Amino acid sequence: MKTRTSPLSRLFMALVFLFLYAPIFVLIVFSFNDSKSRTVWQGFTFRWYLELFQDRDIINALSTTLLVSLIATLAATAVGLFAAVGFYNMKKRWRTPLMTVNSIPMTNADIVTGVSLCLLFVAFFAAWQPVADYLNGAQSFITLPVKLHMGFGTLLIAHITFDIPYVILSIMPKLRQMDKNLVDAAQDLGCTWMQAFWKVVLPEIKPGVVSGALIAFTMSVDDFVISYFTAGSSASTLAMVVYGMTKKRISPKINAISTLLFITVLILLVIVNIREARQERALKAWQA
Amino acid sequence: MRNRRSLFALPYVVWMALFVVAPIVLVVVYAFSSADGGFTLENFAHMGDYAVVFSRSFYLALIATLLCLLIGYPLAYVLARETAGVQRVAMMLIMLPMWMNFLLRTYSWMSILEDKGLLNRLFAAVGIIDLGNLINGGLNSLCAALNSGPLAWLNGELGTQLALFAKRSTDMTFFHMINTPGAVVLGMVYNYLPFMVLPIYSVIVKLDNSLLEAARDLGADTLRVFRKVVFPLSLSGVLSGITMVFVPSVSTFAISQLLGGKNQLLLGDLIETQFTGMAYNPYLGSAISLVMMVVVIVCMAVMNRFGEGEEQAVML
To answer: Which residues have CB under 8 Å from A41's CB, separation 6+?
Structure first.
């Protein structure tokens, strides 16, 4: 769909983007403020950026956030890719109910997902204790931990669980758009099905895989509610540190770390976009 | 052959059974259990006590969803008409804020909306607060004049006690914005607007241009093309946008705590305190979650039914 745009619609767009970016602009500006105040400007400083790197809590939280998001994205992309291929080859009778279950973590409220996983982990840990006791008594080769706690492991499981549906949902349309004859042709020409998958199917659906992984990673980084209920006390993400601080007062160090994150992502996205635009232009020039 | 390949989904099906289905079954079980493990309906008996919280959550979420639709639909529509380059940059700009965790963005609104916050400073600097005082003063004297003039006469004639309010504050130094329901709605709209824009945009941008041309060729003006062709065809995007904004809005807990203070308790806060607060009661928490889930599912089912009907009507 393409027609002309009026200056009025441009103005509307600008206003919405002003609304979206005003708070972010405020956050960034006050990361350079030479005071703990979050509303009064006291002069320019890099103090918070320097202090940031000495704050073990924040650095730990940052590495937990990035690590859990990264591992969850990789796992979710791999599992989701195979699941999508499986669903695609499945009879409709089976696929429809499974896709409905697949969409539960996306449509369900975050807090319900978080709370229900929390209940599951607690119930599992309670059931695990007698089992571990028994196994420890029955053999002496390995000693199993008797008391389990929520931590990085449960956090990771939760993230993988809510990431996979996004991956599947962005791969499925690409699979459906794909010409079915391509796989047959590859197999006629002597490929095994597995070779056909790697050489033909995967390149065809690659944009869906990439965007699925990107969405999954974004969702993981942005998540607070599910992490809050599944991380326990031993692991905390950046969002959880921020939430803990909101009860008192948020340190400008948090502004500083968000500014760094924001600028990193901005630069990455700009590079990707410029590359894409260039490729498109090259393609157009080549076609013309 | 085809069936064997469907086995690729097996690991994920097991995963879903363990971490999607089992937890929800557990919520249902807990909702109907008492602390000693027996079956009980006790948890639902006191649900009426929380009617205020339920109605407040659904009311605020509804307003936030409507506002998101009012802002998000035009934005998605305008974006879809832009050139590919502008579209790409705009999409990037819509996704980008999500990388600053939503708690941080909401926290930033606190410093903007506070009584001594940035927006009030801006208003004071530009003179809007003085203007507000001036308008209030003007209204006060107008009302006072009306009270002593026509209304006094009317009251004398009819024996009534009519009077207009004439005591509006004229010495405001700030507008009170934070810790109000409005601030909570603002936080919801701000955080969930992208979830409205993205699905609508992705439907509109894929619309078959020849349909629009056909409508125009057959004599429809822009408004009519929109009403009869674009909007009905974009309804699926609108419906999924509504779901994606309404569900997180109704169940949020951090936004209401940050922007709403202590007086705007929402369902999310209620559930959270049952699981992490002093009054640890996962049974009651599960019951509240279950009721919320059921109400949301019923709302969505009704809406989708209604939406499908619309779509079919259009096709006929």
So the answer is: A29, A30, A33, A35
